[in-house]
Amino acid sequence: MDQHFKEAIVSGESSLGIEFGSTRIKAALINKQFEIIASSSYEWENQLIGHYWTYHQHEMVHGLQDVYGQLKQQVMTNYGVKLQKIGAIGCSGMMQGYIVLDESGELLVPFRTWRNATTSTAATCLTRQFQFKIPERWSIAHLYQAILNNEEHVKHIKYITTLSGYMHFLLTGSKAIGAGDASGMFPIDRTTCGYNKKMLAQFNELIRDKAYPWHLKDILPSVLTAGEHAGYLHETGARLIDPSGDLQAGIPFCPPEGDAGTGMVATNSIQTRSGNISAGTSIFAMFVLDKDIGVYPEIDIVATPDGNPVAMVLANNCTSDINAWIRLFHECCEAMGLAIDHNHLFHVLFNKAMEADPDGGGLLSYGYYSGENITGISKGRPLFVRSPDSRFNLTNFMRTHLFSAFGALRLGMDILTQKENVAVKHIVAHGGLFKTPLVGQKICAAALDVPVSVMSTAGEGGSWGIAVLASYMIQKKKNESLVDFLTLQVFNGIEASKMEPDRVDVNGFARFMERYKKGLAIEQAAVDHFIEKD
């Protein structure tokens, strides 16, 4: 195997995927058989600065160099060769948000992430104007809100993009984006796989009196579908990734994609009627549609990397508050002089949830580290509530927090299944919540009342998914679709573990959801009366 990998490295028969996720930047180098040659990660965290959630530009570049440096060192240590040639590269990142550049390519304002719930006025107005759901997270909502706020920087915009599109631009100079990521910027026309021309015209008319020196189409990235070439690594980009100068320029790039698109690839959920769920800092479920559906505040319409429409139910919050509580337990262990491995602590506490009362013992939590779009909560107020007669113990405490991670998502899912009769017969899960074997899978099956599968590749995540898309670009046969490439080549023989919902757990989650819905007034009161510090 080592010789097999070494030959792929030396010949450049490899693909590199780099994903800028919400908690980690990850890189994966794969061979032509989609096996991982080397992988790496860099932890980072969003910051609330000036009332906006953001990541600093400097850390984007530092994290990129760190994960590539780790990758390069692994290659040298394990295979005794220097990483210089790569067959293809792809960039992925957290979807949506707001990155705007001036004429010289500099950021006009700090990156405003998907997590910001500051664009409700703009999103509501555009949804009404287009008769199409525009979420608060979408780039066009951020842009229009900046216009409504009369922000000075807007007239200087030359380019608006997402995080994946920005990193792609830095490395290639190409102002392009994949169809999946583009669908989180502005509505996509399913017949052309480009931006909706009617809505572009409506937006330009909406802001005509502002007399900005740009039209919307001129500042948006060009939309490409999976398999198309999206530029080449230029010399400056090569030195940005690898300051040592070893990496050769001229490497082709696939279209940059969002984490939703790479998640669909990583779970082979591209074909019509397939579905997947990703659970990490945020949580979202995606279903490739075979019909049009109505307009709902809780459901976004996005696209697969090859341009097909997808119903997306996304909740802003999932594991952040769980992680905060486990950090607290870790501090407690340290205070008692106990050396506890952090991952082991996760494993132990997650498994305690399996011993709990089916409904979590009457406890209630909201892991709202930020505002929650589905339930209409505008600001983050993590909250834990119990009554004197609740069964307050560790097992119920953990189950309640895991149940809560799926609470807002379930409300959106009910619209798809009950109002639109979308048949959800099976779902593939991936993301950090499913790292502890069986626990997240069992909770998810109870929360959604559907069988849940976890693939052996699920732990590789988006960096592997975007590496596969890069590989598709250079390996696909003539006229070979992405669906066929994934089914016949990438996932042929890959195993998946499937878990059916337990009726006791399903009924317990239903009782929890009754508390969850009634308790939203408590969460709103926390927003109204618990004041943020300056």
From TrEMBL:
Pfam families the record matches: FGGY_C, FGGY_N
Domain Carbohydrate kinase FGGY C-terminal residue range list: 276-473
InterPro entries: ATPase_NBD, FGGY_C, FGGY_Carb_Kinase, FGGY_N
Keyword Oxidoreductase: no
Keyword terms: Kinase, Transferase
Similarity comment text for this entry: Belongs to the FGGY kinase family.
Protein name: ATPase
